[in-house]
Amino acid sequence: MEPSGIGKRIRFYRLQRGLTQMELADRVGVSYQQIQKYENEKSQVTLRRLIVLAQALDTPLTAILPGPTGARLSERTERPAPMRPRDERTLLELFSRIKSPQLKRTVLLLVRSIVDHQGKE
């Protein structure tokens, strides 16, 4: 059964990979106490840190993000609706409105992570 909550999913994939909190912390560049806080959901995980965690766990970002209640990851990603050209233009237009270079980079990393995961399926 797929765990709910980002922290529980981080713990699930860490244990599945046979990593200690210290080993994961070293891969991510944080203290093991911070990993504990993430797993116990005492501290929120930023999107940028979540991307790094997913890479350190060799797990797709989409596997860590919670989805619709009761839906498994495979059910959520099996048949995405095709994107229409109008949607693509809207996405580009909205992306161009983002003022923060850091936020733009984070969005780009998220999209790249999704594309990389898609290639592994």
Descriptive report:
With 121 residues, the chain is mostly helical. It has a single domain, classed as 434 Repressor (Amino-terminal Domain), CATH 1.10.260. The chain is built from 8 helices and no strands. The chain is elongated and about 45 Å long. The relative contact order is 0.13. About 10% of the residues have low confidence.
The total count of helices amounts to 8
The CATH homologous superfamily is named: lambda repressor-like DNA-binding domains
Largest sheet: none
CATH topology: 434 Repressor (Amino-terminal Domain)
CATH architecture title: Orthogonal Bundle
Distance from N terminus to C terminus (CA atoms, Å) equals 20 Å
Shape: elongated
Report Rg: 16 Å
Poorly predicted sequence stretches spanning 5 or more consecutive residues = 69-80
Task: Give the class from helix and strand content and strand pairing.
Answer: mainly alpha
Q: Order of SSEs, N→C? A: HHHHHHHH
Task: State mean pLDDT (0 to 100 scale).
Answer: 81
Query: What is the CATH C level class, in words?
Result: Mainly Alpha
Please give the domain count: 1
Q: Which helices and strands appear, and what pairs or packs with what?
A:
Layout lengths: L5 H11 L4 H8 L3 H8 L7 H10 L4 H4 L8 H5 L7 H13 L3 H20 L1
